[in-house]
Design a protein that fits this description.
single chain, Sufe protein. Chain: A, 2 domains, three-stranded antiparallel beta sheet, 6 strands
Length: about 425
């Protein structure tokens, strides 16, 4: 057993722990970024694309070059499954062994699931899946160690997403990397992308005995005894096979320690740099007026009361407060005063929802996939500031009515401070 492999696995555990504490929602954000791109391309929309590209740039290039290091090192959802598997080994001793044929067939399900989401959720919109249905979004929001003590609402856990998360946790006690192997749609994407990687783990079968120790220790159940080079997209580069080999016959090029270092630096550096950049873009976007409202304001008055108004809404973790500036009856800018949600989810919602509200001059806009609660919190806060019904909490939008419309002469009754007392105009 090579010493470098032991060092790599120690590094892997450290990186997993740090990622679990600091960025538990990176998986959910990355998959939501894929959704943003898929929906934007046929629609010809640029909304949210910059953030999506930044997030994917943190993981996809490294996957193309080195393989699925993200899954083996960074994914907190994967780390949770590793923890459950370790606990079950110490608690139950004997765990379920899936046959090679059954394992191979079951692994195709994640590709079927990915196609279903792309076609029926993102492109056709036949099925709507928000954060309440999303087990990895629930995981990312509730397992942020740095904010766990601030949680006061456990409704997210008592939801379909919470129930699915429980199923995955239980499944991980009996099947190693249960979610990663058979369900994970993002894992399906990484598996496809990693097939072209130039660096692969090598295992010369002429140097092997009949032990199959490498296969028995493979986290993803790859039949390593059948190959001289691990080209399978299922490989997550955990190097457990290399660590377990008694003949040191399993090798990687580049060396695992170097590959791990490159991956850690590339993914973490791009992620944090990208998150900072996307936050700046979101801040810049919050004060942009739409061309439609600007040109309209020259000829007629909009329907909102002029002034700077404040309002609040409920996000995933608590209250979101906004300040809305209205001029000549049109929304000119929306600034975030405070929020309680996790930054990566909130920024994802903020970067898209605010610009769409301003462009549409309505809070009846679509929530951002993967950040539904944060999106609804912003829409509700803006609606509260304007003194109108929020599309996030009203069913009237389904009947085609304008949630922003108000009765003639209706005035704000929310106790906010206004610069003047202009009434709503029905124009």
């Amino acid at each position: 057993m090579g010493k470098s492999y032991s060092v790599v696995n120690i590094i892997r555990r450290v990186v997993q722990l740090v990622s679990f504490i600091l960025i538990p929602g990176l998986f959910a954000s990355s998959f939501a970024a894929v959704g943003t791109l898929v929906k934007a391309i046929p629609a010809g929309s640029s909304s949210g694309i910059t953030r999506a590209l930044i997030l994917l740039a943190a993981t996809v290039p490294a996957t193309i070059l080195l393989g699925r290091f993200f899954c083996g090192f960074f994914c907190s959802f994967g780390a949770m499954q590793d923890l459950m598997w370790s606990i079950s080994g110490k608690t139950f001793g004997h765990r379920i062994k899936v046959s090679e044929n059954a394992d191979r067939v079951l692994k195709y399900f994640k590709y079927v699931f990915l196609v279903f989401i792309i076609v029926f959720v993102w492109l056709l919109g036949v099925v709507t899946i928000d954060s309440g249905w999303d087990p990895w979004a629930v995981f990312g929001m509730y397992f942020t160690v740095t904010k766990f003590t601030s949680i006061t609402d456990f409704s997210g856990l008592i939801s379909i997403g919470g129930a699915l998360l429980l199923v995955i946790i239980i499944g991980s006690l009996f099947f190693e990397r249960f979610f990663c192997r058979y369900i994970c749609p993002m894992g399906a994407i990484y598996a496809i992308v990693s097939k072209v990687r130039p660096f692969k783990i090598k295992k010369n079968r002429e140097g092997c005995g009949a032990c199959r120790i490498c296969t028995n220790n493979c986290t993803m159940g790859i039949p390593l005894y059948q190959t001289d080079k691990v080209s399978s997209g299922e490989c997550i580069d955990c190097f457990k096979c290399a660590d377990a080999c008694p003949r040191a016959n399993v090798k990687a090029d580049p060396k695992p320690a170097a590959a791990a270092a490159i991956s850690v630096i590339a993914i973490s550096g791009l992620y944090f740099a990208g998150n900072t950049a996307s936050t700046v873009l979101a801040d810049q976007g919050s004060g942009v007026s739409s061309s439609q409202s600007s040109s309209s304001s020259e000829t007629k008055k909009g329907k909102y009361t002029d002034g700077t108004h404040t309002g609040s809404g409920t996000g995933y973790r608590g209250t979101t407060e906004v300040s809305v500036k209205v001029s000549n009856g049109y929304i000119k800018s929306i600034d975030i005063v405070s929020y309680s949600d996790d930054q990566e989810y909130f920024d994802e919602a903020k970067n898209t929802v605010i610009s769409e509200i301003i462009n549409k001059q309505s809070t009846d806009v679509s929530a951002v996939s993967g950040a539904t609660y944060s999106s609804n919190g912003i829409m509700e806060a803006v609606a509260d500031a304007l003194g109108v019904s929020s599309s996030s909490s009203s069913s009237s939008s389904s009947s085609g009515q304008d949630n922003e419309s108000a009765a003639p002469g209706a005035q704000h009754q929310h106790g906010h401070d206004y610069e003047d007392d202009d009434e709503y105009d029905d124009d």
